[in-house]
Amino acid sequence: MSERSHLLSASSEESLLSSVASSYGGMPEVASHHATVASGEDTLKIYGYRTSKARTIAFWTLSIVTLGIFRLFLHWSEKLYIKVRATPCNLDQADMMLVIDDHDVHTIRPVVETKAATGEHLVLPNERGDEMIQVDRFKWFTFRKMKYVWFESECKYITPADIDSTVKVSVLQSSDQSSGLDSTEVARRLLTYGPNLIAVNLKPILVLLFKEAITPFYIFQVFSVAIWYSDQYAAYATVIVVMSLLSLTTDVYQMRKQEKKLRSMIHSVNEVEVLREGECKVISSEDLVVGDILIIPRHGCTLQCDAVLLNGTVIVNESMLTGESVPITKVALTGIDEDNTHGEVRFNFDKHSKHILFCGTGILQTRFYGGQYVKAVVIRTAYSTLKGQLVRSIMYPKPVDFRFTRDLFRFVIFLAGIALCGFFYTITIMIIRGNDIGKIIIRSLDIVTVTVPPALPAAMSVGILNSKSRLSKKKIYCISPSTINTCGAINVCCFDKTGTLTEDGLDFLMMLGVRTSSSQKTQKFTSELQQMDPVGLPLISELVKAIATCHSLTRIDGKLNGDPLDLILFNQTGWTIEEGNGETSEQSETETGLFDTVQPSILRPPANHRYDSKEYTILRQFTFSSSLQRMSVIVGAPDAEEPKLILYSKGSPEMIQSLCRPETVPEDYLEVVNEYAQHGYRLIAVARKSLDMGYAKASKIARGVVEEGLEMLGLVVLENRVKPQTLGVINQLNRARIRTVMVTGDNLLTGLSVARECGIIRPDKKAFLIEHKNDEKDDRGRTKLTIKQSVSSSEDIIDEGSFVTDSESKRMIDSSYHLAISGPTFAVITHEYPELLHKLVCVCDVFARMAPDQKKQLVNTLQDVEYTVAFCGDGANDCAALKAAHAGVSLSEAEASIAAPFTSKIADISCVPEVIREGRAALVTSFGIFKYMAGYSLTQFISIMQLYWLASNLTDMQFLYIDLFLITTSALVFGYTPACDHLSSTPPPTRLLSLGSIVSILGQLCIIATSQISIFVATAYQPWFSPYTVPIGDDDEDKKSMQVPTGTAIFGVSVFQYIALAVIYSKGAPYRQTIFHNLLFVILIVVLTVVNLIIVLYPPTFISVFLEYDDIPFFEFRLLIVMVSVISIFLMFGFEALVVDALLHDKRENVVTVLARQKTLVKRTARPISYSNMIEAAHNYSEEEDRLSLYDRITGCCSWLKQKKMRGDENAGQKFERTLVAVGAEPIWIRSVARYLPADPMRPSASSLSLKPKANGTRVVDETNGNDDEWESDGGYDPHMSP
């Protein structure tokens, strides 16, 4: 039974109410310069500013004088712009607002003041939302399509939608008796809320072109081209201009295409029927306002707003929002589902989602009686609706917070620093030679364009675009390409269970009824019944009757629709369901005809089954809620002589047991439930209650009142099979050292069983269950926790290759045990033991009975400890978690789900390793292209620095050949190498400024510089060499290569080095396949190599003329150039393979790197590694490792020291690594607050925690029970030892 209502919530009750409360009750009486505004999932910091005439005049004067350069710099920095344009002021006086979101993105928004016309007034909701107050004017600003209004009396900006979303339930109920709004009120509310339109306005092409053209990348292109044209490099400059225009046009085309696609997906306007001034009127949906009474048609329309159902029932399809096309029944808001005696209960989108008709959902069917309309009151419009919020999340995606991106900018700054050195070098030597000032400026600025490659940003997207294309071919669609690189760093994958790890459908296995034992007068379970046959069941087959009636199924166009679980169980009963056609006039006079909440579904049992009636009607339905873990119906028999009503309820065994009278529950109830759950079966408990009341009272009674004192009827056992692909994928992820976590709404023991079956619970790790005791408190008043050991998975079902056994891998930081927890216990730890939360999420791999908001909270907590999180779900109650994760993968039929960045049309988790493999390939490709582009620019920088020494340079056509034919073509086909077929056990590097990357680039540059300088010197010592002299009166003297072949020699060496760099940095394994799988790249490399050989060894006359350089007179020296190039290439490949790969990558945990990290830790903590610490490390690590080599012993010692130091240094390693080091090899950290219980009866009879005496006799006292338990960690270090 899946929960859908919670996914559609905009925020939890607590956060929304606290938002409104803080907006009104907790604000200072006087406005301030700064405020925090919480609206839904957004928390904004706003700062008020006010412009002045003096600042405005100065701003435009500087912009004009500097030809727009001053304005351009301010455009790139919103923070600087606001400081120049305006001065800080109180929020109520501001005409400009600086808005900072959760991701530290700065945006400036103008404040607008709306004034009422003479003799008129405007309206705003009051702070309680129960009435509209009249005002003469109000200020407001918009941020990402949401409107924030200044409430004068409260000194606060807030969205009116937040007030409307927390109005009292009684206020909404009173709308049912309203005759609707009048035209004057509608006009006023339109000014306050704006039109009800989710519009994606297409920006003019010229605006898109201009905004894209003034980005730093294209401005740098303009700067470069201007330098080249002024230096008469017209040919190459023209090519760059053409390429830039093509790139600019392509970018704008893609933006316009995405705008059109999004608009086609979400733009929807139609005619709706509303109740206004007591009459039904047909209006455009754009004219809907909050408070309108919307009349819902019988079927076949799409909702254009969020509305609360006032009467009747409506069956909707919410697949547009959730990706799940199962029809959902919405019921009227009665306000009686909770204690609302005093009318103080406020509306909440979480708890009352079963009453909300969400914008974008399709109306399948409505039910009403006696000619009454099915009515709903509009509560949110436009972008404040749920659909609007999802559209906003697409239009304004969360910025990619990834180290690679930050390192990219840092490295560009590093290149700019090198360019600055070249800039001053050029100025110095040209001043020494006496060049004119114009030539000095042009030549010194030209070196900047060489060092920082203009094509770098475009080249960086090659890998991402190719990975996206390959994923699309595998039916995995991505709406956020920037997320692909992040997928390469994923180190934990969270999976929903039902429909994700297991099959969507459940198979009915058996049922167990409850009967009274004649001898002991106690309740007992019947034997296992394989069919739902009423014969032999107690209570006149009440168990089968309850299963046949307690559901939310409906027949639409002759087809039975509803929750898959309800369908499976209903089909097993053999009953039939018919939809009523509405009462006749005679029926409408009866009691049942007076209440339109009565369900018209008529259910009939099979003719050969005997029941107390021939047909039954569902009079009232309490829909399923994951927070309540149950659903209920009130059923009557219209044809019975004495009509009586019965409540049937079904749900989780724990919840139904708590609602039943204890004497009706078998004594071995929990043992039976646990026995089936431990075998992975899903259980549903069924109960009933006879109601002594009439139809009128039944239609108004509160759910909490009627769902108590139930009588247990029995259990239904269903089998949820693991998908065939699941085990293989989990093993594959485990081999890749990617942690796997199950997050399910099912029973804890059922989740544990499935986790064992699919390999999430590993046989080489212990498993523990954490639970809580509501009736027990500790000395601090906190709920008592308990912990007990459970069984791990069988080694028979786990791939042996997934075990990590090599000595190096054993030193990887990992947990040594599993924990499993349920949602209620998770909530207890969150609120009462927050200090344990980070440790818990690092070692807990099974989370059961998790509500949708808890799933999101789990993802956020994993991110807090610096995990890179992927979440895979079916797109239903996982929407919040899918959006919160770094990479959300929705298993949906839709080509593009707006709930997650990735959507797989193949409904199994095999898409997850595909996404990770392509993410790793894209990430490594981005690394490779960046290093290639950096190496290319620095190689060219080295060549030019040598030529500048002789007052020369490469020619225009030589630049053109290098940049266009060698570099650009190589970069374009660089990313076509496909991802590797398997996930490597070694994660890819995520830091561009890592030791390996820096050593690689600097090492290659040293080899390149040495070879070029060698050929430079060799040329100078040739007998035919004559020094270059500047021709008198030649303005183009330094545009040419030297009239002697030194420039030609350097050019000849460098062209081979560019090719070598492309091959070196296109390395495949272990994240991409070899370059031979990239046929275009191989062909290009071969062609370019042959062309280079021809140019250097046997240059035809037309090539010499084209490249504008003189041939080297002797073939032997040309051959020497090739030989030097070959030698340098061998050295470059050898350095990358022997130094970078072997030393810095393959052996990243060896003595050198560990000692380097220890050195860093020592610097950070200022606590040197003492001799005693070294002895301690050797003793702890090497005592039982006699068979290891000396190298491994030293490495292990250093690794132990690293872990010890990490426990005391908050800056060492990632946060989850430090946490894993802290929790140790046994769950001692939680035993300090939890009572240890005996192991599960099904587990092997062994010591629950495998305790053994320590060699040194150290004793650790268990503070829980006062016993002196002797613990020794299996992880090679004592978790209690202080650093």
SSE inventory with pairings:
Layout lengths: L12 H12 L9 E6 L2 E10 L1 H13 L3 H8 L1 H8 E3 L7 E5 L5 E5 L1 E4 L6 E4 L6 E4 L1 E7 L2 E6 L4 E3 L1 H5 L4 H6 L8 H11 L11 H9 L2 H15 L3 H33 L4 E6 L2 E6 L8 E4 L4 E2 L3 E4 L3 E5 L1 H4 L5 E4 L24 E2 L4 E6 L6 E7 L5 H10 L7 H31 L3 H15 L4 H5 L1 H12 L2 E3 L3 H6 L4 E4 L1 H5 L5 E10 L6 E3 L12 H12 L4 E3 L2 E3 L2 H10 L2 E4 L5 H5 L11 E4 L11 E10 L4 E7 L8 E7 L1 H7 L9 H10 L2 E11 L3 H6 L2 H4 L4 E9 L4 H12 L3 E5 L4 H11 L7 E12 L5 E8 L16 H4 L6 E6 H10 L4 H7 E5 L3 H13 L4 E5 L5 H6 L2 E5 L10 E3 L6 H39 L6 H19 L20 H26 L25 H19 L14 H19 L3 H7 ...
Parallel strand pairs: 23-35, 23-40, 35-39, 36-38, 37-43, 38-39, 40-41, 41-42
Antiparallel strand pairs: 1-2, 2-3, 2-4, 4-5, 6-9, 7-8, 9-10, 10-11, 12-13, 12-14, 14-21, 15-20, 16-19, 16-21, 17-18, 17-20, 22-42, 24-25, 24-34, 26-27, 28-29, 29-30, 30-31, 31-32, 32-33, 33-34, 36-37
Helix pairs in contact: 2-3, 3-4, 8-10, 9-10, 9-14, 10-34, 13-14, 13-33, 16-33, 19-20, 23-27, 30-31, 30-43, 33-35, 33-36, 34-36, 34-37, 35-36, 35-39, 36-37, 36-39, 40-42, 41-42, 42-43
